[in-house]
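for the writeup, i need someone to sanity check this before i put it in the appendix. the sequnce is what the collaborator sent (i think, or maybe the updated version? ugh). structure was predicted straight from it, no edits. if anything looks off just tell me and ill rerun, i have time this weekend
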Amino acid sequence: MRKITVFMLTAACLACGECRSAASRIIQIAASDDKLIFDISAAETDVRLLEIKLNDPYDPQGDYAVLWRGKESDKISVDRFVDKKDRLYGRYILVDMAGEPVGNSRFITDLSQTTRGQLKLPRPKEKKGLSCIVNVDDAVKLGVKYMNDNLSLDMIVDLNNPNPELVYHFDDINIPINMAYIRNIDKKVKACSDAGISIFMVFANRFNKNVDRSGPLLHPRTDVKNAPMGLGAFNMASEEGIKYYIGVLEFLAQRYSRPDRKYGIISSYIIGNELQAHWTWHNMGLTGQDTVIREYLLSVRLAWLALQKYHADLRVYISLEHHWAIGGRMGDPLKEIPGKTILEKFNTWAKAEGDFPWNLAFHPYPENLFEPRFWR
């Protein structure tokens, strides 16, 4: 049984290496159905508001869209949609006229002014849970009120089908949906949610050894040959990969939070799996901890935005296994990260660019996986 534990941490804001000032000059960014509203602190000189890339550091010599310029210290609004692109997923920064950053880059963190689902999603008071339910009747008789199951990005996107049954349109791409896989998900989600079971889905990214590395789904650093479990990191390294990732989460959020409950209800999404052991469960090759955590934070933040776009009560979770002060059993800092390190850096960097309500899905395993009697 997987126990879902939620708690909050606090930490001082840490500059992201992009800014000269410790205090962010963009205080908050909110979204309405048609506008983005920027709350900006007073500027002593003319500044420019830029939209910058999600996956690259800001470059003062780069070419970026200028959304606004001036000295005003009140709220500034710009159009949310431009050429069918939703700027909800944008990353924004203030710079002076020489192009130097003034404060941290920021993401949208307030969607309270948008029109979206308000149905209270099921979160029973009972604690009993079960992983990957096979027989719903048995689970009901056992008194199960929570379940977790798995969704895989590669199974949802049907890249090899030239004539997909359904295509989901996001931004400038058309995402082919594997409806045979989705119908199986529909059946289980509908049966379990109709039985009063709250569903947590682990959203992961499988691959096989013959995966096409030119495709948009898999992170380019993933070591396909040597990754132990065939689970890779989400592709946060390319704009196309990010679009597929967001688009699929939007599709899921729309389908499984409908007020008519046609396909059932998914209450929460756990992003990736066991980040401490990222070599095994979220492979992006031999990679330093800061890169792993930053890209994972981006994937969790974008998931939160995609889910919140369609329903105000959808929750997003980060996934940790049981190692806390040590990295794990391999002793390789390019393959494992202590849980404490992940939480501290994730929390600090999330705050620096705009905090959002992320939650924690923790695997409460014993120190020895083969000895489940905790009292020993």
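The radius of gyration is 21 Å. Confidence is low (pLDDT under 50) at residues 1-24.
thx in advance!!
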